[in-house]
Amino acid sequence: MSSSFGTIFRVTTFGESHCYGVGAVVDGCPPRLALTEEDIQPQLSRRRPGQTAIATPRKEEDQVAILSGTENGVTLGTPIGLLVKNKDQRPGDYKDMSQVPRPSHADFTYQMKYGVRASSGGGRSSARETIGRVAAGAIAEKFLREAYGVDIVAWVNAVGSLQARDLTNETLTREIVDRTSVRCPDETVAGEMEERILAARDSGDSMGGVLTCVCRNLPAGWGEPVFDKVEAKLAQAMMSLPATKGFEIGSGFDGTLMKGSEHNDAFVRKGDGLGTVTNFSGGIQGGITNGEPIVFRVAFKPPATISKQQDTVDFEGRAVQLEAAGRHDPCVVNRAVPIVESMAALVLADFALRQRARTAN
What we know:
Blueprint: E1 4-5, E2 10-14, E3 21-27, H1 37-47, E4 64-66, E5 70-71, E6 74-75, E7 80-85, H2 107-114, H3 130-148, E8 151-159, E9 162-163, H4 174-177, H5 187-202, E10 209-216, H6 230-239, E11 244-249, H7 260-263, E12 267-270, E13 273-276, E14 284-285, E15 288-289, E16 294-300, E17 310-313, E18 319-322, H8 333-359
Antiparallel strand pairs: 1-2, 2-3, 3-7, 4-7, 5-6, 8-9, 8-10, 10-16, 11-16, 12-13, 14-15, 17-18
Helix pairs in contact: 1-3, 1-8, 3-8, 6-8
């Protein structure tokens, strides 16, 4: 099983949903970076369950502990160990599902691949695995912010058929995004998004949605073509997240409806260098950052675990009716916001260090 990501700034996550704890080991973080648990905790607190009515009611404080790699609040350049304990597990909720693979869940495929699986909580396929990513991403973000001034903000721009207005050209902050429980800064539709999620939950069902993420203040020149293009690594990072089903950057699929004369981003002088008038490229050309904001979107499917009755079969092929027990998100997009930001930070921190290695004298 591949649980590691990155080339120089490399992260390995560990743990299952119902084991002792989950976390990550971060290797390659530069030394002499000021770092304490207080730098990591805010993003974990944004990700944790039980915050709103539209999220799972599982109660976890998700307090992170730094086990290694720092001394006196400063990184040493050695591996950084991070741990978050699991405290509110209810494995008994999964007893009736131990022999019934949940439709569209990874129960079946994990069993087929390994011949065994964590039968409670989803194991490594659970969104709880993303705690290690978020903790590591918070470190990557601090490095990017202090070394380059990079700013990363994601938000919910669609739930089901409800679409927010285009906010990519607005200077959004996380504080603005967090003003609504669904993390959609377009307050004209945020309330209705929440109502639809609650309606799905009350009927035992779930909903999907789309996130937009903008990464600002990147220099031009990051990226490693041909196979390690920035958009390729971002796509890999985002599609490795639970429940993701789509990724597009810049104009995405809408760009196929345009002519070249409409889609081309004309260059202009900006400050001491060049920039573009439009940003249909999404901040990347030829797999390399061009200095404009990186803009991408990630699609999340409706969560597979629902309490609504479903006709399916058990592992022996016997017909059963499944009503999944347990505590689950009726829609993952609001809690996915800090996870997407963290994965973007991991990708960009790795590219920053790869570029440093390329240009070092």
